[in-house]
Specification:
Blueprint: H1 9-15, E1 35-40, E2 53-63, E3 70-80, E4 91-96, E5 104-113
Parallel strand pairs: 3-5
Antiparallel strand pairs: 1-2, 1-4, 2-3, 4-5
Length: about 120
């Protein structure tokens, strides 16, 4: 009752020519870009302001080594706004990028929170 069956799936796969498999192109984004979250502080509706530029104030809290209390540290960053879509008091995320001007080394990535209109 032993039968020699050579048409097993493994044997038939080996005899069939296989097409080369195409690997999808993987686009790698640069890793390690610093990201910060802050609030836009400049007036974006003025006529004479710099176009495609917003000033983002980032507030971080650090512990004072001597007094051991938390202190706020504020710093302003000039960020690139490609479509002029962000307004004053918007909370946005910025990411480090190549230098775009003398003071601009950041770009706005996304809107996190927009305050309600008054």
């Amino acid at each position: 009752m032993t039968s020699q069956n050579t048409s097993t799936p493994e044997a038939s796969d080996m005899s069939r020519p296989t097409a080369p498999t195409q690997t999808p192109k993987v686009v790698k984004e640069r890793a390690g870009r610093r990201r910060l979250v802050g609030r836009i502080v400049n007036e974006t509706q003025n006529e004479g302001r710099a176009k495609q530029t917003v000033v983002v104030e980032v507030i971080r809290r650090a512990r004072d080594p001597f007094y051991t209390k938390y202190v706020k540290h504020k710093k302003k960053f000039h960020a690139h706004d490609e479509n002029n879509e962000y307004r004053k008091n918007d909370v946005v995320e910025i990411r480090a990028c190549r230098p775009r001007s003398k003071t601009k080394r950041w770009e706005v990535v996304r809107l996190i929170e927009r305050p309600p209109e008054v």
